[in-house]
Write a structure and sequence with these properties.
mainly beta; 3 helices; two-stranded antiparallel sheet; six-stranded mixed beta sheet
């Protein structure tokens, strides 16, 4: 999605759009890597305004994704939503040769050149940050049995689960012999 800066005035410009995920290379790469499946297009509601020499874009982007639970390996769907504000500053991107401490303003501002602002990289980043690293089908998910692999959400398995601490499991078969003093 691109905004022409001549369309953005001192009064808020409101936009609503729905775009396919295929137009966002970062998101298609996540899908190709198997991190998730996008089940719906991106739904965006944005406002843009010119203020103090920069452009402020505030908005919400959401979509539906298919994920695999990291505990029980069952597929499930979830709605991903991100609310964000980004400041676009006119000017070229300057590469930094040394380490520089970034201020909070630097973290939410993006430089742009020309008479259009391309929102696609930041929109893709917002969705990418909302996809969980270890997705769970529910907070109460019991996962799989470590011995037999049965989904414990569907019932108990036949394995004997002694109350052995995993910290000392290497000592289960350790036998002490009587040592006679000489």
């Amino acid at each position: 999605m691109k905004l022409r800066i001549n369309d953005i005035k001192d009064k808020e410009l409101s936009l609503a759009a729905e775009e396919p995920v295929s137009g966002y290379p970062i998101l298609t790469a996540m899908e190709s890597a198997g991190e998730c499946r996008f089940l719906a297009p991106l739904r965006m509601h944005l406002t843009a305004v010119r203020e103090y020499g920069h452009f402020r874009v505030h908005g919400t982007v959401s979509t539906d994704v298919g994920l695999t639970c990291s505990r029980c390996l069952v597929g499930f769907s979830s709605e991903i939503t991100s609310i964000f504000t980004i400041f676009y500053l006119p000017g070229a991107v300057t590469p930094l040769d040394e380490e520089v401490e970034l201020s909070e303003e630097d973290l939410v501002s993006v430089p742009f050149e020309g008479d259009e602002i391309d929102l696609a990289p930041e929109i893709a980043e917002q969705i990418g940050m909302e996809i969980p690293y270890k997705p769970l089908c529910s907070e109460e998910c019991k996962g799989l049995c470590a011995s037999c692999g049965v989904d414990l959400n569907n019932g108990e398995c036949a394995c004997s689960h002694g109350k052995t601490s995993l910290k000392f499991s290497a000592l289960n078969n350790f036998k002490l012999e009587n040592i006679k003093e000489k």
